[in-house]
Amino acid sequence: MAYFDAASTESLHPAARDALVAALDGGWADPQRLYGDARRARLLLDQARAKVAVAFGVRPDETFFTSSGTQAVHLAMLGALSARRRTGRHLVVGAVEHSSVLHTAALHEREGGRVTTVGVDRTGRVDPEEFAAALRPDTALACLQSANHEVGTLQPVAEVAEACRAARVPLFVDAAQSAGRAEVPAGWSLLAASAHKWGGPPGVGVLVIRKNTRWRSPLPEDEREGRRVPGFENVPGAVAAAAALEAYAAEMERDGPRLSALVDRIRERVPHLVEDVEVIGDPVRRLPHLVTFSCLYVEGEALLTELDRLGFAVSSGSSCTADTLRPSHVLEAMGVITHGNVRVSLPRGTSATDVDRFLAVLPGAVARLRRTAGVQVSE
């Protein structure tokens, strides 16, 4: 089986596995206590925090561990909106944000807030000028992902951050897809990421709140994680996440160009191999490992199942709603084909042989499904 769904999750990195096993023995105690085992756990947690902070170019005391990337998103947004309520209750989001961002925006709207959604072009990218125009004197927060999770398009974070700075509006960046793979431009105020995306363990997220950013916990106060995140710290998970991020980022610096070249091969070859197909997303300003395409006259779920039978694990349709029949909100916002959609995302170590094998079996898989659906297929 060739695993081509790294955008959903990477397998546990060997560095994370080693760190996790060691930390289960040395980091099990309560890091808030003062006895020896607790001090050792606290040291491990502080070291993990420092490593993650270096990776994001921030201070350790700006970095907090959460139970997931989704929790980090919720805390970042709700905490910023709560702290800036006197400024106003207006929120700006991009149309292709992750569902965790859009669901939080919907909650804010149900509770009396106002939301402006900034559209995207056909590549899935927001226009920085349009985003800047959406900012108002009562805007409490703006949200823009670093890169799209379904099509890989990089967003203009630097330009939007500059506009937000001029308008004195904090910018929240969901960096789940780019963390460890691509540098996030500076200028943001809050950031969220998820460890399992870079080969860390599931159940560990990262929340970054820059100094001088107004933030108030939307949850009952707790003594843990600098009063930012409630609950007992997952020290072994944090240690493993930091070890994986450090190792993964170093690997991607070396191997990223190779993976990007393999994605270029898929982007270039698929339209020649399969009729009535659209390759989606920005061909240049994109993540190095991800490519999405849609095939007319084919159901995405059926194509996913057929490719799985042939030895390829890929995702289809919306990465957030793959178990439903709802069209992807990302593809709808882009104005592209929303059915017959396949997202291929290459994990670390993907071989050119596996990519070539995928390209060899894809045309036949699509043709068989089209024939089954009664579509005329040219031989």
TrEMBL record:
Catalytic activity entry: (sulfur carrier)-H + L-cysteine = (sulfur carrier)-SH + L-alanine
Ranges of residues in domain Aminotransferase class V: 3-358
Record bears the keyword Iron-sulfur: yes
Keyword terms, alphabetized: Iron, Iron-sulfur, Metal-binding, Pyridoxal phosphate, Transferase
Cofactor names: pyridoxal 5'-phosphate
Entry annotated with the keyword GTP-binding: no
Tree of life domain: Bacteria
Residue intervals passing through the bilayer: none
Annotated family: Belongs to the class-V pyridoxal-phosphate-dependent aminotransferase family. NifS/IscS subfamily.
UniProt name for this protein: Cysteine desulfurase/sulfurtransferase TusA family protein
Annotated source species: Actinoallomurus spadix
